[in-house]
Structures are given as C-alpha cells and as structure tokens.
Amino acid sequence: MKSLKRVLLPTDLSGKCENLIRVAALVAGEFHSEISLLHVIPDIKGSPVSLDSLKTDATKALSDLRDELLRRGVSSIKTAVNTGTAFDQITEYADQQDAGVIIMGNGRKENTDRFQLGLTAEKVIRKSTKPVWVVKEIARRRYARCFARLTSQPRPDGH
Fold first, then answer.
1. For 66, which of 19, 21, 22, 88 is 20 to 30 Å away at the CA?
2. R_g over Cα of the chain
3. What is the mean pLDDT of residues 132-144?
C-alpha cells in the first residue's frame, strides 16, 4: 500500500470543513504526513471579479486553514491555488505532489439522513489514480484517533 507521507486536502473554502480538518490532522499525526491544501478557482470568462483578487482571497482563506492545522499539531503544510476545472486540477495536483491519498469533503449539504456525494467528489473518485477518502461534515460520532494500519512499512518511530 502506498505510503501516507503526503496527503492532499482539496477545499472549496465553503467554510464547512471542521470535520475534514480534524480527520486530516488525525491522519497527519498518525502517519507523520505532509498536508497539501489546494483550492481551485474555476475558469469563468467575463467574471466581474479579477482572477488576482480571487487568488488573494483564496490564499488568505488557505492560510487560515493552515493555521488551524498547525494548532492541531500538523507541522508540514503546503498551500496552492490553481485555476481550471476542480476535479481535473485536484487529480493532476495529487499526481504532481505524489500524494498517498486525497481526503476531501462530500460536497453536499447534509439535510437528509442519506449520504449524498457532490459532483466534484464523484468525478475525483472516478478519475484519480490515488485513493480518495470522502469525509462527511456532520459525523454521527467523533473519531478520537486514526487506528487503521494502511501500510506495512514501519513508522518513523520504529513501530
């Protein structure tokens, strides 16, 4: 199984990512992973807002998420803002960064008892050569730690 040294955490910056950040921090803590935060700005022709302005806002929001991950004990974090089609950019960036896993939100509001998968999450799952973990924002119970062994390689601490 591929090592989890690098984790890609794409976000739409919708503000509903507390559970996603918590899960990513748990994985990073357990596997000593580097986290890459990625936001993709869609190509919108004729937008009244400049691309530079959108990139500045996204960079600031990613910085806030980076600070939250640092508070949760993650020590290695990269941020990136790309433009294009979200699922294409996510899968390409995962390959470029040699991510061991993509951890992303489900992309849908959860007002029902049924789990719903958003269009971007579905396309990433279909297109990616990397494993994709989809995290619901509203979990039925909170997970205190990540306990599944996903690789046969020894951890850096020898266990």
1. 88
2. 16
3. 70
